[in-house]
Amino acid sequence: MFRQIILGLGNNWLVEHTMQRYGMQLGAKRFVAGATLDEAIRVVRDLNDKGIGATLDHLGESVTQLTEANQARDSYLHMLDVIHREGIHSHVSLKLTMMGLALSKDVARDNLKQIVDKAREYGNFVRIDMEDSPVISDTLSLFQEAWGGYPQNVGIVLQAYLYRTMEDLKTMSETSKNIRIVKGAYMEPATIAFPSKPDVDDNYVRLVKYSLTHGNFTAVATHDQLIIGQILRFVKENHISSDTFEFQMLYGLKQSLLEELAKDGYQTRVYIPWGRDWYAYYLRRIAERPANLLFFARNLIKK
Ligand SMILES: Cc1cc2nc3c(=O)[nH]c(=O)nc-3n(C[C@H](O)[C@H](O)[C@H](O)COP(=O)(O)OP(=O)(O)OC[C@H]3O[C@@H](n4cnc5c(N)ncnc54)[C@H](O)[C@@H]3O)c2cc1C
Predict the structure, then answer these.
(1) Which of 106, 127, 142, 275 could cysteine-pair with 59, CB 3.0–4.6 Å?
(2) Are 249 and 271 contacting, i.e. CB atoms less than 8 angstroms apart?
(3) Ligand 1 within 6 A of CB of 200
(4) pLDDT tens digits for 162-193?
C-alpha cells in the first residue's frame, strides 16, 4: 500500500514540479551523485580508490520525443568517451525507455547499437536496466539482439519479484550471459509478481544460485545482508570462482558493507545515478522503505 501511494506520485505533475525544484535539498542527494557528470565522476574516483567499480546511469526514462531519445544516446556516447579518457573503472547502465522504446523498438534498437558499438571500441560494458512489465519482453528481445553482436559488452537485469523470471533465466542461460539479478523496484500486480516479500526473497536466492551454477557472470545486486551471507556460503561450498560474480549496490546505500566485501577480495560495483531527471528514481528509493519518508520529512522541516 505504502509503495503504491509513493510510486503513484510519479503521475502527479504538481508534486513532480515541486520536487524537481527543491528535491535535491529535500534529500534526493542521498541517492543521486549529482546533477552533472563531473560530480558523478568524482564519486567514481573515490570508489575506485577503495577498489570498488562503478556503473554510471544518466537519469531519465519514458521519453516521448525523438530529440530527447537522441540526446540521451549522445549523453551515453559522451559518458563512454569520458570514462575512457579519465581512465576510471566504470561501466554504464541505461534504460531503453530513455533511448526511445516508447516511440518505437527501432529507435531504441538503433540508439542501443550505437552505444554498445562505442562500448566495444573501448572494451567497456553496457548494462540494460529492467523497467516495468509493459516493456520487459521488448527489453529482453533487444538485449538478445545486441548480445548476439557483442556478447562481452552488454548485459541485462532480471527481477526476482516476477513469476516469469526463472523461465527467462533458464532461456538466457542456454548461452552464458552477464546478468544482474535484483528484487524489482516497480509496482506490479499479483497476477504477474509475488505479492509477499518472503516469496520475492526466496525467489531471489533461487535465481542467483541458478545463475551462478549455469555459466553466467552474475551481478548479485542487493543490500540484503542475510541474502548476501547465504550467497557467500553458497559460493564457498560450491567452489564458485570469484571472477564469475560480483556484488552491486546503489549509490547511498550500505556502502560500508560493500567496502567490506571489496576488502575480502570480492568484485564490487556501485550503481551511480546522476542528472537532473532524478524524480522517478528517487520515488522508487523512497517506496522501498517507509523509514525513508521520515528522512524526507525531516529534510523538509529543516528547510
Ligand atoms: C545495482 C542495482 C541495480 C538495480 N537495477 C534495477 C533494475 O534495473 N530494475 C529494477 O527493477 N530494480 C533495480 N534495482 C533495485 C532493486 O530491484 C530493489 O528495488 C532494491 O535493490 C531494494 O531491494 P534489496 O535487494 O536491497 O532488498 P530489500 O529487502 O528491499 O532491502 C534490504 C535492506 O537494504 C536496505 N535498503 C534497501 N533499499 C533501501 C532504500 N531505498 N533506502 C534505505 N535502505 C534500503 C534496508 O536496510 C533493507 O532492509 C537495482 C538495485 C541495485 C542494487
Answers:
(1) 275
(2) yes
(3) no
(4) 999 999 999 999 999 999 999 999 999 999 99
- Any idea what the CATH number is for the domain that residue 85 is in? 3.20.20.220
Q: Does some domain include residue 15?
A: no
For residue 269 and ligand 1, the question of a CB distance below 6 A is answered with no
Contact present, 258 and 42 (Cβ < 8 Å): no
Domain membership of residue 289 (yes or no) is: no
CB 219 within 8 A of CB 180: yes
Q: Measured between alpha carbons, how far is 296 from 123 in angstroms, rounded to an integer?
A: 40
Q: In terms of pTM, does the model score above 0.70?
A: yes
- Total domain count, the chain: 1
In this prediction, residue 28 carries a pLDDT of: 81
Asked whether residue 256 is domain-assigned, the answer is: yes
CA of 2 to the centre of ligand 1 (A): 16
